[in-house]
Amino acid sequence: MIERCQEDTPRPRFGPRARTAVVLAAAALLAATSAAFLPGTASAGTTLGASAAEKGRYFGTAVAANKLSDSAYTTILNREFNSVTPENEMKIDATEPQQGRFSYGAADQIVSHARSRGMSVRGHTLAWHSQQPGWMQSMSGSALRQAMLNHVTQVATHFRGQVVAWDVVNEAFADGSSGARRDSNLQRTGNDWIEAAFRAADAADPNAKLCYNDYNTDNWTHAKTQAVYNMVRDFKSRGVPIDCVGFQSHFNNDSPYNSNYRTTLSSFAALGVDVQVTELDIQGAPANTYRAVVEDCLAVARCNGVTVWGIRDSDSWRASQTPLLFNNSGQKKAAYDAVLAALNNGTTPTDPPTNPPTTPPTNPPGGSCTATLQDGTRWGDRFNSTVTVSGASSWTVVVAVTSPQKISSTWNGSPTWDSSGNVMTMRSNGSGNSFGFTTMANGNWNRPVVQSCTAS
Ligand code: G3I
């Protein structure tokens, strides 16, 4: 089943928090200007990040700050991934170890590593019953509510502009068949604590996507999945600023992948939120299951990307289950090949463009080559374009988008940018006679224009 594009209202994708797209685009522009480091531009089709970018998605991993000095680790990280989630460094015990005294060193280190290489950052997590510092564990009632909201505000403010999506609230629902909220000190402050956290995060960083994140919410038939679905539906109906839902997707023998996963993703997306696979690992790393997860995400227009919860098996919180894409030596496993193939060949959404660019391809004057722009996949907030060059094997093509559009990723060429960020000069880099790019529409669906093609 392929999902059709679902938009809840005609308002900008990120609701009243419309500046989100601008920041995403700015982050993406940073990525694009760091093209030499951007997996999405260097070797399309041969790395997870590059292949995901071609589908307008990201492929991320959890990162531990204390492993950034391990060159075997960073070699894979820098080569394969274009999104990063700090595994523990943004959690409450790490960022506010003493009440009112914030500590961002390890998280900043990961953010800096990622952003300087054009990777985006998912923030994890602002409000959670677990990994609370001692001072918070012993709090209750209105004092805890205030402390939690202050934490959300301070941390989201610190990382404002650097984090594209936040797991605002993590794991707030109980396992089993009850469909109830998980009991916790936060829950006991009142059932509205989750929406209060979202509103505080929205006020602190109106541009980040705000996600609810949980595990065992992957199987559409499970009570916990339905309970989260009902909460998100309620939030959307009441204007609570939620933008996305994270599906941790820790699959194992007790909690296996089910083929209704795609239904789960598409059903949530139909509520008007993005969906993201946030902590993927699969016991034994069966290639077919990894492939299925990626295909499911690609089949849902609002599935933004996939994050695996670690790089090598030895980096996993469940190392003995060997659940990741690289073995302890950093070698690619069969699951890696399956994921890469799925990203390269996989399903793309069949959303019919509602306002497609329809003008004929532009063949610009100048130079001794011709560059033809073709429309690619279109999503709710962005679209792909491909430019094919004839008449030269080595070329320079200038493409312009119209403000407030921003090009968020490119492949098969080496881009540079003018000061406005709207004019991209793409040079061939040996990848062939075509290149591609993703444009964040930011409400403007005008077709990018090829301004010139010059043999070089
Ligand atoms: O760094 C200390 C080390 O100094 C000490 O010697 C050692 C002794 O136990 O602990 C180390 O800290 C551990 C930390 O991971 C870093 O390895 C903590 O004890 C341990 O509790 C912590 O586990 C993390 C777990 O969340 C905590 O709940 C895992 O790394 C992390 O992968 C895991 O991630 C969670 C997501 O946040 C939410 N979803 C589930 C997922 C898996 O549990």
In short:
The chain is an alpha/beta fold and 456 residues long. The chain is built from 13 helices and 17 strands.
Textual characterization of the structure:
Keywords: Carbohydrate metabolism, Glycosidase, Hydrolase, Polysaccharide degradation, Signal, Xylan degradation. This is Beta-xylanase. The chain has 456 residues and is α/β, with parallel strands linked by helices. The chain has helices spanning 19-33, 39-42, 48-54, 71-80, 92-95, 105-115, 134-137, 141-158, 193-204, 223-238, 261-269, 287-298, 334-345; strands spanning 58-63, 83-86, 120-128, 165-170, 209-214, 244-247, 250-251, 274-282, 303-308, 370-378, 382-390, 395-400, 406-411, 414-417, 423-427, 434-440, 449-455. Strands 1-2-3-4-5-6-8-9 form an eight-stranded parallel beta barrel, surrounded by seven helices. The protein has a four-stranded antiparallel beta sheet with strand order 10-11-16-13. The longest helix is centred in the N-terminal third of the chain and has 18 residues, at 141-158. It is globular and about 70 Å long. Mean pLDDT is 87; it is low at 1-16, 18-43 and 348-364. Ligand G3I is lined by residues 87-88, 130-131, 170, 215, 248, 279, 317. Ligand G3I binds at residues 87-88, 130-131, 170, 215, 248, 279, 317.
